[in-house]
C-alpha cells in the first residue's frame, strides 16, 4: 500500500470487483468522494489519547468478548501505517517472571484513526479485538467481526475508499474539524 497515483490507490481495494474499484476512482476523479464520505460520516470521534482509546477498546470488549483476555496495552501508533503497512496490530508479548512464562496482549491502532469518524475507529478496534479469539483471517474471524459490528464489511470498504482518496492527494477530511467546531451541534 505504498506509492501514489492512480495505480497505487487501487491496492487498498485489491480483491474488490473491478467495477466497484472503477466507481471509486471515478468519484475521486470527479471530486465527489469527499462530499459523499462527509455526508455519511460528518464528524470525527473524540477518542484522542491512548487512555481514551484503552477505555474505548475495553468498553467494546466488555460488550462483546467478556471471556477473552484483556489487553494489557492499547495505544495509537504513529509509525504503524508507514512501517508495517498496517492499520492496527495485535501482539502477544511473552516475558519470564520468576519461573513462569507470562504473556501480555497488546493492541496498537494507527494514529490515522485519531482523527477519523467513530465508525472507522470502531471497525479497526473490532478487527483487532476479534484477533483475541481468532488468529487467522478466516470465516470464523469475519463472523466474529460481524457479530461485534453488523456493518463491518461496509465500514471496511468505506475506510478503504477514504485511504484511496488520501493516497491520491486528497486532504484529510476530519483532521481540521473537531466534534465541537463552531457552527456544529454538539455530539449526541
Automatic annotation (TrEMBL):
InterPro entries named among the record's database cross-references: UTP_pyrophosphatase-like, YgjP-like_metallopeptidase
A molecular function GO annotation: hydrolase activity
Residues annotated as domain YgjP-like metallopeptidase: 99-160
Recorded superkingdom: Bacteria
Residues spanning the membrane: none
Record bears the keyword Lipid metabolism: no
Metal-binding keyword on record: no
Annotated keywords: Hydrolase
Protein name according to UniProt: Putative metal-dependent hydrolase
Naturally occurring in which organism (per UniProt): Azospira oryzae (strain ATCC BAA-33 / DSM 13638 / PS) (Dechlorosoma suillum)
